Amino acid sequence: MIPFILKRIFISIPVIFVLATITFCIMRITPGGPFDKDKAIPPEIKANIEAKYHLDRPLWSQYFYYMKGLIQGDLGPSYKYLGRSVTDIIKDSLPVSVELGLYAAFLAFLLGIPLGIIAAYKHGTWLDSSSMFIAISGITLPSFLVAALLIYFFSFKMGWFPAGLWEGGWEYKILPVAALGLRPVAIIARLMRTSMLDVIKADYVRTARAKGLSEFPVILKHVLKNSLIPVITISGPLLAGIITGSFVIEHVFAIPGMAKHFILAVTNRDYPLIMGVTLIYAVLLILANILVDVLYAVIDPRIKVS
To answer: Which end of the chain is more exposed for a tag (fewer CB within 10 A), N or C?
Structure first.
């Protein structure tokens, strides 16, 4: 298992560098620069600032300078947050985004799997219809609309929860987590239902019942374990969706996470901050996919990691 994980990490290193190269080139070939909006800056001062950040050098020299810092673990200074490095900005905001994403992922599995199980075992009943209505609604409604509806009803109308920010109390976290986690809950519930309906009809499940096993051991030992495999399969893309979806949710609820800095960085053409946020999210997605592959082997012994 350990050699497999190390191998995956080693293979991912070139992917990170390719992504860094592509992002670097896109930022540099796009018209405009990080200081073009500052019309009041005299040309001499602007030239000195560009020289300070090596923006006056040829493109290949800028690329070499950035990659040299990246190899050393230095993401560079921010152009707009004067006196702060990209690493410091990410250290402050990444824990907030990760916390929001983990809560949403936990909610997705906590509610999605039971809803799928109920819908499968109550197939054709009102419980099935209700679960699938929730699932379809969660998939079709965009996250920003869900966030707006939650704020309107539970904050403005009922006054139960704050309309934004991310303070210490749980009351600040419930609405953002619910808005971000609804779509993953719906996806997992629908997939779990479909998977369980297929597994329930399998021959080995019928054999287990014919041997006299009660329903709970059949569900626990045979149905549930095999039904989780498709859910694990989509966990990687699902986590990617949670990460990208958090940008919208963080913006709507004014959460001081990575989204705030990324949006400002794109607006202000803060090259190092854009690249730093992009690379951090890429690393998180790679680690999530490695975790999914490991879970494959844990849940299904037939799957070998090599």
So the answer is: C
Long-range contacts of 44-52 (CB under 8 A, 24+ apart): none
Distance CA 90, CA 130 (A): 42
Kindly report the number of other CB atoms within 10 A of residue 60's CB atom: 8
**Three-state secondary-structure class, residue 72:** coil
Looking at the chain, how many residues does it have?
306
**For the chain, how big is the Rg over CA atoms in Å?**
24
Cα–Cα distance for residue pair 253/36, rounded to 1 Å = 30
- What b/e string do you get for 111-134 counting C-beta neighbours within 10 Å, with b at 16 or more? bbbebbbbbbbeeeeeebeebbeb
Q: Residue 212: which region, alpha, beta or left (left: phi > 0; alpha: psi -120 to 50)?
A: left
Q: Determine the pLDDT at residue 305.
A: 55
**Which domains can be identified in the chain, with CATH numbers?**
2-83 (no CATH), 101-269 (1.10.3720.10)
Q: Which residues face 151 on adjacent strands?
A: none
Low-confidence ranges of the chain (pLDDT < 50): none
pTM over 0.85: no
Question: pLDDT of 242-275, one tens digit each?
Answer: 877 788 888 888 888 888 888 888 888 888 999 9
